[in-house]
Amino acid sequence: xxxxxxxxxxxxxxxxxxxxxxxxxxxxxxxxxxxxxxxxxxxxxxxxxxxxxxxxxxxxxxxxxxxxxxxxxxxxxxxxxxxxxxxxxxxxxxxxxxxxxxxxxxxxxxxxxxxxxxxxxxxxxxxxxxxxxxxxxxxxxxxxxxxxxxxxxxxxxxxxxxxxxxxxxxxxxxx
Length: 175
What we know:
This protein is α+β, with helices and mostly antiparallel strands.
């Protein structure tokens, strides 16, 4: 039987250790601390909790994403749906290209090319023919092409913000 005592300050101090508990999914006996029992831990493993669709763990809906570097599919919880890489190895590769791309988009050469593309397309979106806030969009992903092709105006089009977001799959289903 666990012993409940008081510490030097007069607070209750648990001195009994873990308590035996039976897993409701597989029936296996295992030990839990009373604080874990109080917080609702009931299963011996994650797989047992998922096998009975424990409500807390079931809320963690998973989303399939594609890695920007190796292009393999990977799963993340919905809260991390903005993840761009499948692991740290791919993240390291992807983040080394990023500073070069950011410097390109800040360059005067890009600004001049962007203006040329907008003039060529008549300052209108090529998808919906609207005027307004425009974006010069590369038809090929910039990180997959060589830097000498980044300013080629024949692979750049003018898009409005909503169409640009649609092309990249951003904000789909948002109202």
